[in-house]
What we know:
Blueprint: E1 7-11, H1 15-27, E2 31-35, H2 38-48, E3 52-55, H3 64-72, E4 81-86, H4 91-99, E5 104-107, H5 112-123, E6 135-138, E7 141-144, E8 149-152, E9 155-157, H6 161-172, E10 178-179, H7 180-188, H8 196-210, E11 215-218, E12 222-225
Parallel strand pairs: 1-2, 1-3, 3-4, 4-5
Antiparallel strand pairs: 6-7, 7-8, 8-9, 10-12, 11-12
Helix pairs in contact: 1-5, 2-3, 6-7, 6-8
Amino acid sequence: MKNEDIKILLVDDEPDILEIVGFHLKKEGYQIKKAKDGKEGVEKAKKFEPHLILLDIMMPNMDGIEACERIRSLKGLENVIIAFFTARGEDYSQVAGFDAGADDYITKPVKPKVLVKKVKALLRRVNKVTPEKEVVNFGDIIINKEEYYVEKNGEKITLPRKEFKLLSLLTSSPNKVFYRDEILKTVWGQDVVVGGRTIDVHIRKLREKIGEDHIITIKGVGYKFVI
């Protein structure tokens, strides 16, 4: 995909940030839209349908965490790449961001050239993100990879993107043990640095939604899905 075909949405309540970041990304040929808070960001995401969103966390009207969750729930935007672009670099803030569905976390301040490099690294995933057109059935669980939802005993469950990708990976080979490194690389990507506990948090949330019996922990190794 050519740069001029790629759409990037910038969401930040600081006009200077929007101006500077927008300027440098436009120089690369990308299509740019801007929003001054989370609420406006969600509305513009619906209309613009970007490939990448750079999203601040601390904003008026709606913060970045809530905006990320809402964007992830919108049909057609399940696979948009979202990176938090924020001065908040605490571990708990990053974990909250990834739990909300973010793909990466860029800490301010950052030099424009470095930011452009990070954006290019994120955009390498654009052509790789294609939902599988497949419906798989595991007893009381149905996974619709085309429409991005799960059914448990006839009840439809909408999962955040990372939880869905994690479940899709584990169910791609039932009874196979997936190593933790493999899970991190497949679900979070090679360019993202996350702690091992991030996997554990997502596994716990999946178990809460689909039941304790299907996902088995292999201590010190990884996880597997059993029917």
